[in-house]
Write a structure and sequence with these properties.
- This protein has 291 residues and is an alpha/beta fold.
- It has a single domain (18-288), classed as Divalent-metal-dependent TIM barrel enzymes (TIM Barrel).
- It contains 12 helices and 8 strands.
- Strands 1-2-3-4-5-6-7-8 form an 8-stranded parallel beta barrel, surrounded by 7 helices.
- The longest helix has 21 residues, at 91-111.
- The radius of gyration is 18 Å and the shape is globular.
């Protein structure tokens, strides 16, 4: 594949893009403010961070209030992000995960959100792949069955520094779960930084295997250092090292025609003007993906 793109890599191509703002991009804002910023900076949907959602509900707001707020700003909700540590083993942790799944699924149904993100991390690190897959699949199957009662799906995100860090492992896990409401989120940084996935592999997916795209840039972890994604991912599209055109073209090759969600996980940018950050990300999506 080619190197970094220069200028507009899609000049002359007529492309209609569905553009969502991952609210982690402007994580310093509360949920109501994030929705207002999304509307004013050219987005038509949002990916909602679960911590901000929980805070919103904890203050006495209801899912119905959130639904009305989304309508007010002309926004859809593409995902609630996330149920984390889906590789849990002990009984109490699994019960807590089931509670999360019930709550988030009920909210997702109320606000018309089609998916909730699932994130496996490092609880099973050091175990054989067959055991990692079996334990994680059992957990996800439980969560997926809860979501199905509400008509809600789930997007699996491989994490660069975890045992499940590639597209091939993710698809193996999804096959083991064997539920129709589980698909992939193609996160450029995690798949690229994890080192086990190429754009060519992504291009071979069918669009039915994908719920969402995380459009993002970043750097890889330097040898001997600790993973810190709030630093490694702290780069606007085009300022990191990911060959974005290759990854964008790979997604388009699948026939995917749903939302692209821009994601900037950056402690530095969280302390900047959130409106300007969102504007910059919105413009970058149009440059690399199309309007």
């Amino acid at each position: 594949m080619g190197g970094r793109s220069k200028g507009n890599p899609l000049a002359g191509k007529a492309i209609i893009m569905k553009k969502a703002l991952h609210t982690k991009t402007i994580y310093g804002c509360n949920l109501a403010t994030a929705l207002s910023i999304a509307e004013t900076t050219g987005f038509t949907a949002v990916e909602i961070v679960a911590e901000r959602l929980n805070s919103y509900l904890h203050q006495g707001n209801t899912p119905e209030d959130l639904r009305k707020l989304l309508i007010k700003h002309g926004l859809g909700a593409v995902c609630i992000n996330d149920i984390c540590h889906v590789d849990r083993e002990d009984k109490a942790a699994r019960e807590k995960m089931a509670e999360e799944a019930w709550l988030l699924s009920s909210v997702a149904k109320e606000i018309g959100c089609k998916a909730i993100q699932l994130v496996p991390l490092c609880s099973l690190e050091g175990k054989e792949w067959k055991d990692i897959k079996r334990i994680t699949a059992d957990n996800i199957r439980m969560v997926a069955d809860i979501g199905s009662k509400f008509g809600v799906g789930f997007q699996l995100e491989p994490v660069a520094w975890s045992p499940i860090n590639s597209l091939s492992k993710s698809l193996d896990l999804i096959n083991a779960v064997d539920r129709d409401n589980l698909r992939m989120v193609v996160d450029f940084w995690h798949l690229w930084s994890g080192g086990g996935t190429t754009p060519e592999e992504v291009s071979k997916l069918s669009k039915e295997q994908i719920y969402n795209i995380h459009f993002c840039d970043g750097k890889k972890q330097a040898s001997g250092t600790v993973w810190d994604e709030t630093i490694l991912r702290g780069h606007y599209p085009g300022d990191g090292d990911i060959p974005l055109k290759d990854w964008v073209d790979a997604v388009k090759a699948t026939g995917y025609d749903d939302y692209w969600s821009c994601e900037l996980i950056s402690a530095r940018h969280w302390e900047m003007n959130a409106i300007e950050v969102a504007k910059t990300m919105s413009a970058a999506m149009e440059t690399y993906i199309g309007k």
